[in-house]
Amino acid sequence: MLRRTLPVSAAFAFSLSVSAFALAQGVMPDNNSKTPTARGASRAGASKAGAPAAGAAKTSNEPAPTVEEIKQLIADGKQREALQKLSRALALRGDSAAQYDRHELLRLKAESHLGLKDAPAASSAFAMAAKEAKDDAARAEDKASELVIKRSKNLQFTPKAGKKGEKAEPIDVVDPEKRKAAFAALLEEEKVTVAPVLKAAKGSKTLPPIVEALKQSGDLRMLELAATGADTETAKEIEGLAGGAQKLMDNAVQDMASLVKDIEASANDVQPVAVPARSPGGRGPIMYQSAKRRGLTTRDTQDLKRTIGDLKKLVPMARDLAASLGEQGKPFEKIADDGEAVGNQAQKVLTTDYTDNGSGNQGLQRPTEIRRR
C-alpha cells in the first residue's frame, strides 16, 4: 500500500523555542513525582522531627487567611507576612479554594514582592496572574506590569530620551499609579522596535517571522490596552498578519493529520504470509497460510517522531497567540486543539503493537493447511 509523502513546506520551519505540550496522559512521565519508597521516607523523616511535625499540624488548623487581612498586611508594610498567608491561600484546592479569586491572590503576591524590591519574583507573579485573568483588560495590566518590571533597573523605568538634549525622568514601577505612566512610555518605545519586524513579516511566506511579529504585536497590544484602555492601533497591524499565520499553521496541521492517517492505514494493512511447520503425519514440511499487519517502517517512525516534535512547538505557539491577540486570536485556539489531537493520534500510532493480525488476537492465524509439493 502506498502512502502519500508529507510536503516539505515552509510551514514546518518552526524555529521558535516554546514549551512542549502534553500529548496524552502518561506519555510524558512526571520526573518530579515521588516513588512510594520516597514518600514513605518523607513521612518517616517528618515523624522523627517531632516538634516541627506538631507545628505543621497546628498551622493547618489555623483559619484560612482572608483577602482583607492580606491587603491590610501589605498596606502596613508587612509584605513577608502577607506572602506567607498568600502561599497558604494559593496552596488550597477544591472547596477550600473557592472563597478566593486566584487572579487577585497572584496580583497581591506580585505587589508584595515589589514592596520587598524583589523584581524577578514580582515579574514572575504578574506573568502567572496574566494566565489566570478572566478578561483582556486584567490580562493586559498584568502583562504590561511584567514587561515594565523586566525593563526597569532597580525598579525604576527610565524612558528613552525624546527630543535631543532632553533627559527622561525615571518612573517608580513599585507605585501602581506611576506604573501606568511606564506603560505609556514603553508603548511608544516598542512601536519603534516592532515596526521593522512587522514590515519584514508582511512580505514573508514562511511562518517563523510572521509568528515572531505577532508575538511582539501581542505584547504591544497588551501595553496599549493597559495604557489607553483600547487596542485600536495594534489591532490594525495584527489583522493582516493573523490571517496569514492562521492559514500557514492550519495547512501545516492538516498536512500532518493526513500523514498520520496514511501511516496508520499502511501500518494496519493486513498481508498474507506463509508459515513453515512440520507435518503432524511426518510426511515432510508444510506451509500454513496466515496474515499479519504490515507495521511501521523506519521511515514511518521517523515521520511520526518529527510530526510530534513539530506539534510540540506549534500547539503552545498557537495558544499563546490566542491569549494575546484578543478577538483576532480566537482561530488560533482551534488550530491548537486540532494540533493537539493530531499529536495524540501520532503518539498512539507510534506506540501501537502491530504484531497481531488486526483481529484483536495476538499471534498468527492458521486457517488453511497447504502441503508443500
Describe the fold and architecture.
The chain has 373 residues and is mainly alpha-helical. The protein has three domains: 63-134; 156-230, no CATH class; 238-373, no CATH class. Helix content is 60%, strand content 7%. A three-stranded antiparallel sheet has the order 3-4-5, with no helix packed on it. The relative contact order is 0.11.
Descriptive keywords:
single chain, 373 residues, mainly alpha, 3 domains, 3-stranded antiparallel sheet, two-stranded antiparallel sheet, 12 helices, 5 strands, 60% helix, disordered C terminus
A few lines on this structure:
The protein is mainly α.
Average predicted local confidence, pLDDT: 80
Strand order of the largest sheet: 3-4-5
Question: How much helix, percentage-wise, in residues?
Answer: 55-70%
**What series of H and E elements makes up the topology?**
HHHHHHHEEHHHEEHHE
Structural class: mainly alpha
Shape verdict: elongated
Largest sheet: 3 strands, antiparallel
Work out the helix count. Answer: 12
- Work out the count of structural domains: 3
Poorly predicted ranges (pLDDT <50, ≥5 residues)? 8-59, 360-373
**C-alpha termini separation:** 31 Å
What percentage of amino acids are in beta strands? Answer: 5-15%
